[in-house]
């Protein structure tokens, strides 16, 4: 049961988030008429500081902060794939996100599907991009609630039965109201509190852990012994040769997939300039360091002898915090993780609603909808998404949400050719991209389901089975079909839609008159 000091600190953090959400309308106020740009993207007005807070707070979710240490607690080194994966994201964001922002700002695009619609002139391809994004986002949204519940339960702050459910609903209700009224500005201001609370609390926890164990070496040796070895170097804590392909492909595939998620693009599109996005991309590794420390705490939980419930390894770090930390510090950590769920959950609901309105409702239901009506529909859909996530968490097993989120990562990766490759070349035919997407979706789903909803699957390449990330295997097949199909369609002379963007049709060198150098 939580003590009074822990509860007071926890409520102070949650109360601070609520107060900040109320002031969200003051962030970059605008006298413009209602529009999706204003509600969903904060009028594309966020500078480097706010964009760094929002993008980092959106990418690094509460479930990430519990799942990564939970995986480290249960499996050791494989959990740290999240560190190189988020490191790879930074240069990708520097290149891809800033270029996509420039095109979106110039043409008024709000979603990735808007870009695909303009680039290829193909409504069906844009529709599947939008629907894939929504489909992959919804279980991710539900996982934020699972992260909140795991933290509160481990800290003794989640009452059993209907009372606990009402507490969850109350926490989410404040977020829903703030997001409904202020759009992206609400999670942007809450992200500031998230950054302060998480960085401060995690620094304090890691310092206390290192002080108790006598340094990081002692922590890793203790964890190695807990896993059945003699020390860290002679234990299951380290990667084996057979795990390395899975580790590498999981890191690469996850990095490519992350920038395709609608909530990440929504946070990026809110920046005021492409230069801002490049600056923020350089600063994102600070959040990656934070994630690495959370993974370290999973190792520390092993060393401390924490016994997480079976099937509930994500509770290992909250249990460690409750055991080792003073009440106020523990309350601060729990509050920080809960606030850490509110930011991405809000952005996810906004992104899913915006994709639905722009690429389904306006495209196929009400093409003449005014900007004011689009905002009204987006608000309603955003609220419905949050209610659906709550119902999903209460109505289904936790493992169901996790399984769907694993599939979501594989699914969202299949739009990479249409979006990311399309930023640099229009050579791929939209019908071939559709065929590649369909093959990739079917293959990825089959591989994951066949292995009992494991995203790591064995492939027999002749020299024995090789374990790789299912999303990468499906993406390679997707690209093969798209390239082959494009060649066939070009030979047959099949026409394609008009390109409404001002991007070059293919990647060509550009000569700089000052130096004579060629650059793409």
From TrEMBL:
<keyword id="KW-0812">Transmembrane</keyword>
<feature type="transmembrane region" description="Helical">
    <location>
        <begin position="282"/>
        <end position="309"/>
    </location>
</feature>
<feature type="transmembrane region" description="Helical">
    <location>
        <begin position="157"/>
        <end position="177"/>
    </location>
</feature>
<keyword id="KW-1133">Transmembrane helix</keyword>
<dbReference type="InterPro" id="IPR001734">
    <property type="entry name" value="Na/solute_symporter"/>
</dbReference>
<feature type="transmembrane region" description="Helical">
    <location>
        <begin position="432"/>
        <end position="449"/>
    </location>
</feature>
<dbReference type="InterPro" id="IPR050277">
    <property type="entry name" value="Sodium:Solute_Symporter"/>
</dbReference>
<protein>
    <submittedName>
        <fullName>Sodium:solute symporter</fullName>
    </submittedName>
</protein>
<dbReference type="InterPro" id="IPR038377">
    <property type="entry name" value="Na/Glc_symporter_sf"/>
</dbReference>
<feature type="transmembrane region" description="Helical">
    <location>
        <begin position="79"/>
        <end position="97"/>
    </location>
</feature>
<keyword id="KW-0813">Transport</keyword>
<feature type="transmembrane region" description="Helical">
    <location>
        <begin position="469"/>
        <end position="492"/>
    </location>
</feature>
<feature type="transmembrane region" description="Helical">
    <location>
        <begin position="329"/>
        <end position="357"/>
    </location>
</feature>
<keyword id="KW-0472">Membrane</keyword>
<feature type="transmembrane region" description="Helical">
    <location>
        <begin position="246"/>
        <end position="270"/>
    </location>
</feature>
<feature type="transmembrane region" description="Helical">
    <location>
        <begin position="6"/>
        <end position="24"/>
    </location>
</feature>
<feature type="transmembrane region" description="Helical">
    <location>
        <begin position="52"/>
        <end position="73"/>
    </location>
</feature>
<comment type="similarity">
    <text>Belongs to the sodium:solute symporter (SSF) (TC 2.A.21) family.</text>
</comment>
<feature type="transmembrane region" description="Helical">
    <location>
        <begin position="377"/>
        <end position="396"/>
    </location>
</feature>
<feature type="transmembrane region" description="Helical">
    <location>
        <begin position="125"/>
        <end position="145"/>
    </location>
</feature>
<feature type="transmembrane region" description="Helical">
    <location>
        <begin position="402"/>
        <end position="425"/>
    </location>
</feature>
<dbReference type="Pfam" id="PF00474">
    <property type="entry name" value="SSF"/>
</dbReference>
<feature type="transmembrane region" description="Helical">
    <location>
        <begin position="189"/>
        <end position="210"/>
    </location>
</feature>
